[in-house]
Fold:
Amino acid sequence: MIIDRILNNNAFISIDDNGCEIIITGKGIAFGKKQGQDIELKGNYKVFSSDKELNKKLKDIVSYIPQEYMKITEQVVFILDKEYNKKVNDIIYVSLTEHIHGAVERFKKGIQLKNPLLHDIKILFKDEFEVSKQTLELIKDEFGILFEEDEAGYITQHIVNAQLDNNIINFSDVTKIMQEILKVIKHSYKMEFNQDSIYYHRFVTHLKFFAQRILNKSTYEDDNEEIFEVFRQKYINSYDCVLKVYNLIEKVYDYRLSKDEQLYLMIHIERITTKSNIKV
Structure:
């Protein structure tokens, strides 16, 4: 790997086989090296793709934010992958690193921000919130700073955004749509959800990406019309509930659910209302 330009001791720019810039980061990876030097990559390092916009942001991050912050983000990505099997886009190396740095700087000035969405975040993004609490421990170990739980909520927002196909959207809007749909189901079935159920967990994961499609006006369609008709006749109550969701989303967000989206909603609703519900 030939060094085209050194950013700091922990990052340098190289050129890939297509003539595009890539960024390589890792502790001490560029220490004592020179421009034009051909080096063999060893140990832990990260190669960022030739995405020009992402690389521009990364250059700024590695230029003015100490490596310790990027190291925390790398550990977060590792935990998400190995412990929760959750993948995130590389934008997290920019957004979360920058956020943690800003949060630490605010803390030093005696500022901690309350998170108005904390309650909803705990319910809707349980795994991501658990990882965020571990992140607070990583920050404590690295900087000796102990944040309040609200900060874990903000970290969760960055994790969730990094899961959403590289489209940074309004997190509060995603949360609002998810809560609205869950409310329709609860009222229709007069029930509360078992939030520890695997079916509930899978459903909120589905809703997260469904809410993103609504906000981006991106309809999901496949070739499942025959299956849709079979399920519509078999799961009458669930389909009635889907129609209520359909009407809500069309009225409030001017978005019409495709039959495939209705089908998947129907399947999830049937599961959470028959296998993991708590009647009230």
In short: The chain has three domains: 5-51, 67-163, 171-279. The CA atoms of residues 8 and 64 lie 10 Å apart. Residues 67-163 form a domain with the PTS-regulatory domain, PRD fold (CATH 1.10.1790.10).
